[in-house]
Design goal:
It is built from twelve helices and no strands. The chain is mainly alpha-helical and 232 residues long. Helix 2 runs antiparallel to helix 3 and helix 7 packs antiparallel against helix 8.
């Protein structure tokens, strides 16, 4: 039986960040105008305006941050990574920039570096669950199962109904060969969302590992029916 996996979208905090703390009202006006252009989808124009703000004030961390967000939206990941780095260099406690920098590193499969960013972010924002989730994903890729589970535990403690955290922790328990713990997590996912075919596939795989063939067949049938109906 093939074990199916589930992919979750990485979270990138978009337009925003720290408020502009410019001494001149003109710079504040320009910043708000650039933000508005970005929110309206005029990314190239917004980037041009943020670049102008950076030229006027090379220490304008929010301008680097917002330009990075827009660059990311245009698929320019390397440029975005560079601008998030610059924002962090100017303001080391800029947790939004740390989070997004780590997210891009995670997407680029630079898992150890991503862990460092998320750890710094969590030190600044101890209840930012997205940072725990992304750090857990990095730990999972590094095969540091126990640390990944600890991060998922924290998220689930704050929100027992977090489907992604329960599903992801179950997948790590599966990798560890802890079938009973994995079974509990995928069962919890199905209690929260009875129409999740991937959770049925995962649970079927575990039932088969535990020698419970009948339950495995039952879950496989439910998964197949859900996928069939979802295709209509």
């Amino acid at each position: 039986m093939l074990k199916k996996t589930k992919a979750f979208t990485l979270v990138l905090i978009l337009i925003g960040g720290l408020p502009f703390s410019a001494s001149a009202s003109g710079e504040n006006f320009s910043a708000q105008k650039a933000l508005q252009e970005g929110k309206q989808g005029h990314f190239e124009e917004a980037i041009r305006q943020f670049s102008g703000l950076i030229k006027e004030n090379p220490k304008n961390a929010p301008a680097y941050y917002n330009r990075a967000v827009l660059e990311y939206r245009l698929g320019k990941a390397d440029e975005a990574l560079s601008d998030f780095s610059k924002a962090i260099e100017i303001l080391p406690d800029y947790y939004q920039a740390l989070f997004n920098h780590g997210t891009l590193l995670l997407q680029q499969k630079k898992f150890s570096l991503a862990v460092k960013d998320f750890t710094r972010c969590i030190a600044l924002q101890p209840k930012l669950t997205h940072a725990y989730m992304n750090r857990a994903k990095a730990y999972k890729e590094l095969k540091d199962w126990d640390k990944a589970i600890l991060d998922y535990n924290f998220v689930i403690k704050l929100d027992p109904g977090d489907i992604e955290a329960n599903y992801s922790r179950g997948s790590v328990y599966t990798l560890k060969g802890n079938w009973d713990a994995a079974l509990r997590d995928f069962t919890q996912v199905l209690l929260l969302n009875p129409n999740d075919p991937e959770a049925y596939y995962q649970r079927a795989w575990i039932y088969e590992k535990k020698g419970n063939t009948d339950q495995a067949k039952s879950d496989l049938l439910k998964a197949a029916l859900l996928q069939k109906f979802s295709s209509f």
